[in-house]
Specification:
single chain; 472 residues
Length: 472
């Protein structure tokens, strides 16, 4: 029966959770309901060796180093980099092709989004266990979540004939309905929420893909054949993967196949697709308030109140509201209007607002930096370099830099000179000079960097050597 190979899809953007989720810092790598990220939580729930092989993770280029760091305790067998987003059908095709080559066509794969929350882990494992018999018979199993409300943010699956062992033939897939229609689905007892989680053999998926979406299979095959190893990653061919149709597994296969089985379950599941969903999954006080961070409330009820980066958020007289405060942006809105956030992010994007892409805290494979002050001609950053972290050997055309170590030990290279800086010591890096910063110590290195120059953009960088394989 076991083990099964989990396929963790980590390419989503999480636009409905702005301002916490950004284009280069999507929701799957955020700690939304626990102290660990959703990605880590996903890997942890499939870490039982008696059930599962090490997972294959498919992600985009921007978060590849987050994936390795956050899955340090649950190392994947492969991390595959999608050069462009092409939805779930091509991504799953890549995983199925890999499993078929590494094991055989009968290899079981469990498709899991990386940004969902599940509270009943034992129920999750039981759901999978009772579904393997269907998958071994070359059925495409989709897990349906029993609805507890007439939610309009989920797709629905209509259950058909009972085929025993907790499974039903899929009669129909239904797109996100309006409120009245959703209520009729729930009242009928015949519909489940579409969870986006699947169990099937690699061969069964590839057979259905060849039948219903052959173009996806053809270009995914070429993208994998021309993939290249890149440090600890497998980078798909951009030319061939970009030629794949941008299509989900639902549209490509599940709505067309006659071979699908739905297995309903109640496992405390949420796709955390909006702030009200996060509120529902978060512990609340006696007045229904869920809060995270430095939050002070007075006469508030049924609200989600969050402040990141250590800033005080004080709220008074709020009911049924969402307030999310980050260092550079704040969102305030009522629970029943959260569908507008996606449109709001489009407006931000159209206005080229940097708040849609990056946080004030930017993460890199060596650590992170926080923008503290930004003014014409200069800016100040707090830089944290992890133990063993090493920035690229680089130079800048338009700026010079002053470094002051406030914690830990820094190894500095500037042109031909290399030296050590300790706490409360500083150095100057002239514009145009080749330089590198490293942390040779046993604790994180923290320093303050003051940049001075006519242009301070992150693209003013020339890399000569980089241990993380970056070239720009």
């Amino acid at each position: 029966m076991y083990p099964i190979t989990p396929i963790i899809l980590a390419g989503g953007k999480g636009e409905r959770l702005w301002p916490l989720s950004r284009q280069d810092y999507p929701k799957q790598i955020l700690p939304l309901v626990n102290e660990t990220s959703l990605l880590t939580d996903t890997a942890e729930r499939v870490s039982h060796a008696e059930y599962f092989h090490a997972p294959i993770v498919i992600c985009n280029d921007a978060i590849r180093f987050f994936v390795l760091e956050q899955l340090n305790d649950y190392p994947p067998s492969h991390v595959v980099i999608e050069p462009v987003g092409r939805n779930t059908a091509p991504a799953i095709a890549i995983a199925a092709l890999m499993l078929k080559a590494q094991q055989n066509a009968e290899a079981l794969m469990l498709i899991l989004p990386s940004d969902h929350a599940i509270s009943d882990i034992n129920g999750f494992l039981t759901m999978i266990e009772r579904s393997t018999a269907f998958a071994k018979k070359h059925k495409l199993v989709i897990f349906g979540m029993k609805p507890d409300s007439s939610h309009t943010g989920y797709g629905y699956i209509k259950c058909g004939k009972n085929v025993g062992e907790g499974g039903y033939q899929v009669e129909a897939f239904v797109e996100k309905p309006d409120a009245a229609t959703a209520q009729t689905y729930v009242d009928s007892g015949e519909y489940d929420w579409n969870s986006g989680m699947f169990l099937m053999t690699a061969g069964a998926y590839l057979e259905e893909l060849a039948r219903y979406a052959p173009e996806v299979l053809a270009h995914a095959t070429l993208a994998l054949e021309h993939a290249q190893d890149d440090l600890n990653f497998l980078r798909l061919s951009e030319e061939h993967f970009a030629s794949c149709p941008n299509i989900s597994i639902d549209y490509a296969i599940m709505e067309k196949t006659t071979n699908a089985i739905v297995v309903p379950a109640e496992i405390g599941w949420s796709d955390l697709g909006s702030w009200d969903a996060v509120w529902q999954m978060t512990e609340k006080d006696e007045h229904g308030n869920a809060k995270k961070g430095d939050v002070l409330i007075q006469d508030c009820s049924d609200s989600y109140l969050r402040s990141d980066e250590g800033q005080l958020l004080a709220c008074s007289g709020l009911n049924n509201m969402v307030v999310v405060n980050t260092r550079d942006a704040t969102f305030v809105g009522p629970m029943d209007h959260l569908g507008n956030i996606k449109e709001l992010t489009k407006i931000l994007n159209n206005n080229n607002r940097k708040e849609i892409k990056n946080h004030m805290v930017s993460f890199r494979p060596w650590g992170n930096y926080t923008l503290l002050v930004e003014q014409p001609g200069f800016q100040v950053k707090r830089i944290v370099v992890k133990c063993g972290g090493k920035l690229s050997l680089q130079s800048h055309y338009h700026r010079s830099e002053h470094w002051v170590v406030v914690r830990g030990t820094a190894k500095v290279t500037c042109e031909e000179k290399a030296f050590i800086l300790h706490e409360n010591e500083s150095t100057f890096i002239p514009s145009g000079s080749k330089h590198r910063l490293e942390n040779p110590g046993k604790i994180d290195l923290e320093l303050i960097e003051i940049q001075v120059g006519s242009y301070l953009g992150e693209d003013d960088i020339v890399r000569y050597d980089d241990v993380y394989g970056r070239n720009h």
